[in-house]
Amino acid sequence: MFDPEEDPTPVNDFNCPLFHFSPPKVKHVKLTSVFGSVTESSKNQLIYINNLRKSVIDALKKDKNTINTTSMQNAMETYLPQLFALLDTLIDQGGETQVSLSFGWITSIHKHYKGGYRTFYNDFTYESVFMLLIYGFNIYNQGSTLHQLSLDDNEFKQEHKSIIKFLNTAAGIFHHIASIELESGGRISEKKLLKAPVECNSQICEALSIMCLAESESLVVRKAIQAGMKEKIIAKITLSVNSRWVRCEELIRSSGKEKFISQHWKEYIRSNVLLWSAKTKKYLAISSYKEEKIGQAQGLIQSALASLKKISYARRDQIAKKWLAHVQTENDLLIYYLKKYRKENESFAFEKIPNEEQIIALIPPKRGMVQIVPFSPPEKVNLQIVPKKSNCVLM
Known about the structure:
Elements: E1 25-26, H1 40-61, H2 69-92, E2 103-106, E3 120-121, H3 127-148, H4 153-181, H5 190-194, H6 202-226, H7 231-254, H8 263-290, H9 294-309, H10 318-349, H11 356-362
Antiparallel strand pairs: 1-2, 2-3
Helix pairs in contact: 1-2, 2-3, 3-4, 4-6, 6-7, 7-8, 8-9, 8-10, 9-10
């Protein structure tokens, strides 16, 4: 049985697992074909870069359920400097590949992910976006996995800074994709951006960035409770988490790509909008109760329960089951509070219950607590790709 007089839900707020991205699917490309006929030394450079790309793909395929973080990160950090140099060389040649490349890739945020390689593109300029997405997913998953291993208070105290850094770093990568790689007038032409794949949409990538910050800030709530902060201050942080999830949802809806987005990912975002709205009202209710505003506390709890009842999460994998178990525990806790507050209000307080409009007015300004770790592209290597019958060096 819960006791609202004590530190509220010291465990329940933290047993909720973070999202986990399944490995993207990607096919091999023969990079020696990108530039058509080149000199022998240039061909050897392209073969080397091709092998680096292959090592990234091999790391993806090593485990069907997760991204192999160590081998993936090492492979990616070796490939990226070569990739960016190669793309610049391609732009110097006019931005078009010499042959039609048949390569495909798809990520788990796409609704056709389970069906296989539904997405095929003949344009190598999307490669930087896709590889950075893989890099961002990998770093996010490291934070998500470490969080699952650190639910114990002592473990969390040791690891929380690392988890938050992983999530904020991933946020910076996704933000870089949205604001730099997919910027109008950038490496990918505006004409191509109009027909770009789902994952090459700036609003979708920005939604990924904000999602990382929402997950990161949710961990700050745990630190705030452990530090003994007042419930009204905690409510400001939970409101900031909620507002980030709301923004994620808005970006997806306005992207023009919503119909291609995984239902699983959309449901996760929508469920978090509702969950963190409920948590905000819960902490405000506890604060109101301590201030002897019983009717206000009762109204806030009733509104929080109404938010939770709207959650619909069809996914039934292990993470989803744990997530829904967390929601059920939160629901049981709110029911306990409601019974207590209602009993006291009907027995002696007799205070008016605020309506939903009045409840919204009670919610304080949000208080953001995390920021992205800015991402800087790796320093490009010096490539010399020389076409046959030419003395010029494309840099």
